[in-house]
Amino acid sequence: MEIKIRKAERCDLNAILDIVNYEILNSTVLYDYEERTYQQQLEWFKKKQADKMPIIIAEIENQVAGFGTYGIFRPWAAYRFSIEHSIYVHKKLRGKGVGKELLSKLIELAKDSGFHTMIAGVDGSNEKSYEFHKNFGFEEIGTFKEIGFKFNKWLDLRFLQLLLK
């Protein structure tokens, strides 16, 4: 099974939206409560384009298997070399190397763009994501205790960091 990585296009937004909305409703990967609309996802897409931030797609047999992106970590000038990334894989295609391909490409793009550090925010209960990032050389920097509230429970958020030397 070949995984193809390419730049996201507007025609991918429905597939991206399906992946995002599944995670909102069924996991603590995203701390949102309400499903996003197509219009919200389109505005997100346009902002990423305006900010010159990548959105990449992983495709298997011409179907969107996942996507990844990054953006500036905080909106102040001194953070302009620090990015936070996001990777989402379709629920039926996990464990097939999609996330690995997406993160590898995001790291490559970040290095080529001159960024210094990449940050991951991982839900405290998501051990698979935590280990996934550790395998790429991310180091845990700290945990915010009970920072989110979803599904009637408090959520911890771990921050991991990779220096892009």
From TrEMBL:
Membrane-spanning residues: none
Domain N-acetyltransferase, first and last residues per copy: 3-158
Gene3D superfamilies: 3.40.630.30
InterPro entries listed in its UniProt record: Acyl_CoA_acyltransferase, GNAT_dom
Pfam families xrefs: Acetyltransf_1 (PF00583)
Keywords: Acyltransferase, Transferase
Keyword Coiled coil in annotation: no
Coiled coil: none
Name of the protein described by the UniProt record: N-acetyltransferase
Organism: Croceivirga thetidis
Classification lineage: Bacteria, Pseudomonadati, Bacteroidota, Flavobacteriia, Flavobacteriales
